[in-house]
Amino acid sequence: MAPSFEPLLARMQELKDLAGAIGLLTWDQETYLPSKGGEARADQLSTLQALHHERLVDAALGSLLEDARGDASLTGDARAMVRVLTWERERAVRVPESLVRELAQAQSRGLHAWHQARAERRFAAFLPALSRLLELRRAEADAIGHPGGERYDALLDAYEPGMKTARLREVLEALESRLVPIARVLCEQPAPRDWLTGDFPVAAQWRLCEQVLREMGFDLSAGRLDTSVHPFTGGTHPRDVRLTTRVDPRNLRQALFGAMHEGGHGLYEQGFDEAHYRTPLAAAPSMGLHESQSRLWENMVGRSHAFWRRYFPQVQAEFSAALGNADAGSVYRTVNQVTRSNIRVDADEVTYNLHIVLRFQLEVLLMRDALPLEELPREWNERTERLIGVRPADDVEGVLQDIHWAYGELGYFPTYALGNLYAASLFAAARRELPGLDEAIEHGELSLIREWLRRRVHAEGYRYPAEELVTRITGRGLTDADFIDYLRTKYGEMYGLRWDSAS
Amino acid sequence: MAPSFEPLLARMQELKDLAGAIGLLTWDQETYLPSKGGEARADQLSTLQALHHERLVDAALGSLLEDARGDASLTGDARAMVRVLTWERERAVRVPESLVRELAQAQSRGLHAWHQARAERRFAAFLPALSRLLELRRAEADAIGHPGGERYDALLDAYEPGMKTARLREVLEALESRLVPIARVLCEQPAPRDWLTGDFPVAAQWRLCEQVLREMGFDLSAGRLDTSVHPFTGGTHPRDVRLTTRVDPRNLRQALFGAMHEGGHGLYEQGFDEAHYRTPLAAAPSMGLHESQSRLWENMVGRSHAFWRRYFPQVQAEFSAALGNADAGSVYRTVNQVTRSNIRVDADEVTYNLHIVLRFQLEVLLMRDALPLEELPREWNERTERLIGVRPADDVEGVLQDIHWAYGELGYFPTYALGNLYAASLFAAARRELPGLDEAIEHGELSLIREWLRRRVHAEGYRYPAEELVTRITGRGLTDADFIDYLRTKYGEMYGLRWDSAS
């Protein structure tokens, strides 16, 4: 690094260290925090977040960034750091601190009201808090600005920089039109036996999860696996990456696919270039791309026939009570059953994206203030029925099922669908470049795909915007073609189906 | 609180929240941090500590404190908060930031060199790092100032505000003169059988520790117990207090007395007044007073005959392999054996303080730069022989045994001895005010002493300086009279001894 870059680098390191501390406080809140410590932790987090915001909007940082933008001697990586931090800072500068604080308070209240409403099983108890959160989010979006677009653009941009509502609508409408007929065909197939519900001792599940994580290449001496109610990936640094999962003694799904999902996120975090540590480049360029890694490992690897051919004998031996009469092919069908369900997190690879379409449509309406909140539950239920073909029995199965809106997080859901599309495109590119990939997975050599992802995706960090990086790797940008191909091939083989080009 | 106090209160809360975050990062470093995360954690801690220092020395905080000192409308608690924070800030302001950073670096290097030197079992490998640390500590002490006294005063003041080297020397010399003859008599007694070494299954030790902590009144829903190599008490807030202990499957001592020791610290932290949370009053007024609580629970309760009469039957049932042939009286003798040993942390209640005298004498010389470092190991060994009557076989048993100097912590050791004296005075006062105290302990009613300590000591927080608080409770200040009485009574009864007034 040039000496002139050092003061800016020190600022970047300070911001990353603060973010790391926030990461540990958040992780601890979900794992080891004593039950009476919640209020104190909320105070500590709010203080650190305010400090982070204050340092980010500091005028001196603005000057350093401005000088750096005019410095022709900077390396490409340094320029990328300046670009990313400038983008982050400009968003932060536009939001008045009073609004930041009001949002933090409304988020605490929102979470509380959401839990309350779930306990009462009625949306009405959550409505006032949600109304306030939406009001503040609209104000925030207007403060950030959305030139030539609409408010939802400003929120999307936080998670998927550069993405616009109009383009996302096109992508999701096209995806919906292709998925609906596929889902219709697959839901008509005979239901496989549910092999993964039964007697699955907790200690053996834990051993299996750690083994699979190790074989995926997740470094447990630079990270951890713990349990939490809502699985997530957190931590403080690429050498301190913390995954959580939850273990249900009656069901293997949650722990195993949860660990693989978070393990995919974790590999991304551990895979950043050492030269980028404590800089803005040690980050994924978008949440969609981050999600592509978790979905790739969870679905394209973990729900593949090759994976189950490899792991089934061992899993059967560990869980002989539940799986004594099963075989690899049956379990493979179990973990890939396509079914109409109300709950997003339980959804299969096909219908999952329809749950996202629903949330996207509603979020856009809410940001426009074009949907009276009283009508939200009915609107949710009717759209669920239209899109997926089932109807929630009550608000807990419907509009109250996800935690995101409880703290005012709008604009995040679409990144799950983008993650599915990016995952399929990356996996297709890997298959082209790594001819023996399926055989390698079947032999437990997960390092082949991992090292490819590390080199092509993880080590790049935030050097390029998400779509540009994907284009560099796959030869084309965001598309659903690879995803639809993947589904048709996988389910076509599974059920002996031939898809006509219209479906 | 008066509205005029609010901006100052907000500053206090911010400082406490930052300290809480530092507390969590430190706790995690010793408990759950992945092995490769050490360097990143050192960076994060150094960033947060620099931020804490920056906020503390901020001129705006200085002005708020100055205004508050002139505000006659403040409550007594508010005035105490202003006094404590002013004291803390004035120390910080005098130390240049460059020195703060140099010290942080030298501490990292010192710890590394100390571990290295212990591995090589020779002090010479630690000498250069220690030399640098001492140089910086001398500079720090001179920056803080020590009017009319000596450098060591400035370090002592950080842990035991108001304590001076000259007075401490008097206290420790008098204590030494009284302890040496007592130790001589007790070391001549026949050695009891060592009941606490043997087969002590880890899970049962853990259950016992948690039970004793609960019965002591430590709230495990406002705190935790985990394992670490060096037991300590940490956490982020009075409702998030974290104890650690270590469990040796061949020895019950470490886990049980470690848990009771840290539990004493933990009760203090949990016992602060809710009205003082996130202010400078939610703190002990000195490390000596903090240590009085751990020593009181570990020794005056945990090594009492009453305690063992209560817990022995249960402990025997849990650990029947080791204790099948023991009885309460024998175990009581085992845990109270007085013996000449090289290692401070293994020392009994009598000789422990002689280890502190040794360290105090050497620390004063080191701060005066009056002892060439090459001579430190020999000096250590000769003084050990003179004071305690044994000679370390090598530097690991001698000058390298404690971690404190490895990160340049000088001035802390004396608080352990002060803690023993304060503990005895407080326990004597409790006995006077609570006539059935021993019987209560024997019936497992630990709440009697706990509630007394909570009311008289913990809930006061940092309202008064340590010695003033002790005087308010016991009627007199720092004295070794109660401690010597306690030892003479305890060991006199144990061995049927009569002490003549000269010994």
Low-confidence stretches of chain A: none
CATH domain topology of the domain at 202-342 and 419-495 in chain A: Neurolysin, domain 3
Structural class by helix and strand composition of chain A: mainly alpha
**Widest sheet: strand ordering of chain A:** 1-3-2
Q: What percentage of amino acids of chain A are in beta strands?
A: under 5%
- Say how many strands of chain A there are: 3
Order of helices and strands of chain A: HHHHHHHHHEEEHHHHHHHHHHHH
Q: Which oligomeric form is depicted?
A: homodimer
Number of helices of chain A: 21
* Residues in helix, % of chain A: 55-70%
CA-atom Rg of chain A in angstroms: 23 Å
3D shape of chain A: globular
Concise overview:
Chain A has 503 residues and is mostly helical. The first copy, chain A, has 21 helices and 3 strands.
How is the secondary structure organized here?
2 copies of one chain form a homodimer.
Chain A lengths: L5 H26 L6 H20 L1 H11 L6 H19 L2 H24 L6 H18 L6 H9 L5 H23 L14 H15 L6 E5 L5 E5 L2 E6 L7 H18 L16 H15 L3 H14 L1 H4 L4 H7 L17 H17 L7 H12 L25 H21 L3 H6 L4 H10 L9 H9 L6 H15 L8
Parallel strand pairs in A: 1-3
Antiparallel strand pairs in A: 2-3
